Amino acid sequence: MKFNEALKEIKIYEAGKPIELVVREFGIKAENVVKLASNENPKGCSSKVAKVIANNAHKAFLYPDDSMYELKAALASKFSVQSDNIIIGAGSDQVLEFISRALLTPNDAVLMSQVTFAMYEIYAKQMGAKIIRTASYEHKVDEFLEAYNEHKPKIIYLCTPNNPTGDATSKVDVLKIIDTIDKETLVVVDGAYMEYAAAKDEAYSITPSDLVAYPNVIYLGTFSKAYGLGGMRVGYGVANRELISELYKMRPPFNITTLSLAAAIEATKDEEFVEDSIALFTKEIVRYEMFAREKDFDYIESYTNFITYLFNDKINSTEIADALLKEGVIIRNLASYGMNAVRITIGTKEQNDRLFEVMRKVL
Ligand SMILES: *Cc1c(COP(=O)(O)O)cnc(C)c1O
After folding, report:
1. Per-residue pLDDT averaged across 88-93, rounded?
2. Over 90: is that where the pLDDT of 178 sits?
3. Required cofactors, per record (predicted)?
4. Fewest C-beta in 10 Å: which of 98, 193, 209, 230?
5. Which of 119, 157, 220 to mutate to test the pocket of ligand 1 (most atoms within 8 A of CB)?
6. CB 348 within 8 A of CB 354
7. pLDDT at 18
8. Among 168, 123, 130, which Cα is nearest to 152's?
9. What are 180-224's pLDDT values in tens digits?
10. Ligand 1 centroid vs 123 CA: distance in angstroms?
């Protein structure tokens, strides 16, 4: 059987290792496994949201409201845009997929930073498009504009804050890129961790309302990170209504579940939960920075809910990640991104205590 040629170029996405794997392979009890690998919220989700999911369990037989009226209205009001500026996806991942399928052909190129969210490449390659990367892992405006002029990409991905490095691009820099390029190129501003960046520094806070006036820009957000709903799979895109109506042509009906929809609606009503999550993070990340200084390796200043440790020659990221795994602590090795680095989600105080304890042992 002959598959689409484009598939030859695709490496399967390597997701963060699940707790179940550590239980199976190393015989560690699930409650003793510390998972700091997928940037999930260590506080879990809002208890109000958990209650709504439980209370709606009996509605599992019903398809969800396919208009997603209430969720779009809540997001529209939160971001000061209109409901027809919004499309909902099964995670913002699905919106990325809609974008890729709506725009790309094998004649197109896409532009992204050297080290960034792996799904941009995978969705683009599914369409046979060519991948262009800047030289630096940080989003450097000059590098983006130079590559833009040379390759005239159909899509530019700006991941801010960036996963898996944790650094961010200022609003001024993002707007500089948007204002320089012509309107034939779509700019995707992926704000999966924007809640953290906005809390840290106003200059890095980008909201959909900054962008909807542009015909060629889309903002992506998700309930998976700060809202603690990774398992519910709800994300969104916010853009000019013409762009959104084109993306709607790619959307399957009922693309999120009845329970996910109810959960996301409730989550928009509990911003206090997000604030508490960010407060925990802000307190705990200081310990990670101190730990790096103590052990004499570098880290990237984080605008997200994780920290990226940049190891020196004396430490090998693969060895560290494997050794931690055997102790039941899951982190993300960035060797596959060409970096001698690991990405660690900032956990609860107890999870972080355990991480430092095991790290001290294996280092
Ligand atoms: C987690 C993440 C997403 C999407 O997550 P979903 O769970 O699909 O909403 C998108 N972009 C980046 C950079 C992410 O880290």
Report:
1. 98
2. yes
3. pyridoxal 5'-phosphate
4. 209
5. 119
6. no
7. 84
8. 130
9. 999 999 999 999 999 999 999 999 999 999 999 999 999 999 999
10. 13
Residue nearest to atom 14 of ligand 1 (CA): 192
23 burial (CB, 10 Å; 0-12 / 13-18 / 19+) is: middle
Contact 194, 205 (CB under 8 A): yes
The Cβ of residue 53 has, within 10 Å, a number of other Cβ atoms equal to 17
Q: To test ligand 1's pocket by mutation, which of 38, 158, 224, 337 has the most ligand atoms within 8 angstroms of CB?
A: 224
Domains of the chain: 5-44+272-362 (3.90.1150.10), 47-270 (3.40.640.10)
User: Considering only CA atoms, which residue is closest to atom 7 of ligand 1?
Assistant: 91
Residue 203: both structure tokens together: 């200059």
Please say whether the beta carbons of 71 and 90 come within 8 A: no
Token couple for 78: 């939160």
Closest by CA to 146, choosing from 183, 100, 104, 181, is: 181
Closest C-alpha to ligand 1, atom 2: 192
Residue type, 93: D
Q: How far is the CA of 39 from the centre of ligand 1 (A)?
A: 9
Q: List pocket residues of ligand 1, CB cut-off 6 Å.
A: 91-93, 117, 159, 163, 190, 192, 222, 224-225, 230, 235
- Whether residue 13 is predicted with pLDDT greater than 90 in this model: the reply is no
Q: How far is CA 286 from CA 279, 307, 363, in A?
A: 12, 10, 20
Give the whole-angstrom CA distance, residue 179 versus residue 356. 44
| Antiparallel, parallel or unpaired: β 86-89 and 235-239 | antiparallel
Pocket test for ligand 1, best of 190, 223, 256, 305 (most atoms within 8 A of CB): 190
Q: What is the average pLDDT score of the chain?
A: 96
Quote the ligand 1 centre to 223 CA distance (angstroms).
Answer: 9
Q: 192 C-alpha vs ligand 1 centroid, how far in Å?
A: 6
C-alpha 353/C-alpha 357 separation (Å) is: 6
Phi, psi dihedrals of residue 291, rounded to the nearest 5°: -60, -40
Q: What is the mean pLDDT of residues 246-269?
A: 98
Residue 24: other Cβ atoms inside 10 A? 10
CA of 42 to the centre of ligand 1 (A): 16
